[in-house]
Write a structure and sequence with these properties.
By secondary structure, the protein is mostly helical. It has one domain: ABC transporter involved in vitamin B12 uptake, BtuC (Orthogonal Bundle), CATH 1.10.3470. Helices cover 70% and strands 3% of the residues. Helix 9 packs parallel to helix 11 (273-284). It is globular, with a radius of gyration of 19 Å.
Length: 294
């Protein structure tokens, strides 16, 4: 059986593999959208926070024997705490300024941290084992689906839609959104806005770190793993709409599938298809598919 002239095994297999990539795009672009939408900071260091999450999981296992399931909790907390330090020491001085300042600062921070980790651990990368519970795979008839990759898709969707619900449908989310629009007014109701902003950046950093832990058993844990992904993730955020939580989730998953299918029909274009779509979207709707027009 063929679909568009392609064997259905290859076609459906690439859709599922595209969903795995899309899950990482969605989680990383979600963190970027949260930080930009609520704080107005273009956080180029997001890829580095993703790398730090993977390294935190690897170091916890290699040095302290902490397993994968504990690392899923501990690594985001560690990197989230680092994010809070970054926000307090550096980013808080840039609020209200042009977005370019935040971009340049976080880009410089990325270069420093990547260089430091490359000096300590080299550029070749470290392997992280798949947890025993998720080893093996399931025969779906048209492909053999590794259990761990299925877990990545499930966990990413759970985190993404849980974050969207928290920000868009709860009182805490309402305070966050109101605090970024009119901090002085919200503070009159007894809300500590600076603390809320600080924790928001920490949460965004933790989301990136969680994606890094999920990625560690699939890719080599290396200092450059974030740089290789962040440019695509920025394109995803632009397509979905800067600051749009739901736009980042839907666009990330969709573009992962589109990228996978491109590998079937026209492999040479698989590395640029996301950027071609970005250009087309910006020509038609500069605010992005789900963004609000200025």
């Amino acid at each position: 059986m063929e679909i568009f002239g392609i064997p259905h095994q290859a076609f459906l297999g690439q859709i599922l593999l595209g969903l795995v990539n899309g899950a990482f795009y969605a989680m990383l672009s979600l963190g970027l959208a949260v930080i930009f939408g609520l704080l107005g900071v273009v956080n180029f260091a997001h890829g580095t926070l993703y790398m730090l999450g993977a390294f935190a999981a690897w170091i916890l296992l290699d040095k302290f024997g902490v397993n994968y399931w504990a690392a899923l909790l501990l690594a985001p907390l560690i990197v989230g705490a680092l994010g809070i330090v970054i926000e307090r020491l550096l980013l808080r001085h840039l609020y209200g300024l042009d977005h370019l300042y935040g971009l340049l600062l976080t880009f410089g921070l990325t270069l420093i941290l990547e260089g430091l980790f490359r000096e300590m651990y080299g550029a070749s990368g470290q392997s992280y084992p798949v947890p025993e519970l998720l080893q093996g795979g399931t025969d779906l008839g048209f492909m053999f689906m590794p259990n761990y990759r299925a877990w990545v898709v499930f966990a990413s969707l759970l985190v993404c839609f849980g974050t969207w619900y928290l920000i868009e449908r709860t009182r805490l989310g309402a305070y966050l959104r109101a605090g970024t629009e009119n901090a002085a007014l919200v503070q009159t109701f007894g809300v500590n806005v600076p603390l809320m902003v600080m924790l928001t950046y920490g949460a965004g950093a933790g989301l990136a770190a969680l994606a890094g832990v999920l990625a560690a058993p699939i890719v080599l844990v290396s200092p450059m793993m974030g740089s290789n992904l962040i440019i695509v993730v920025f394109a995803v955020v632009v397509i979905g709409g800067m600051g749009s939580i739901m736009g980042s989730i839907i666009t990330g998953l969709a573009l992962g599938v589109v990228e996978g299918l491109t590998r079937v029909f026209y492999p040479e274009a698989s590395n640029i298809v996301v950027f071609v779509i970005m250009v087309l979207v910006l020509m038609v709707r500069p605010a992005g598919l789900f963004g609000k027009e200025a």
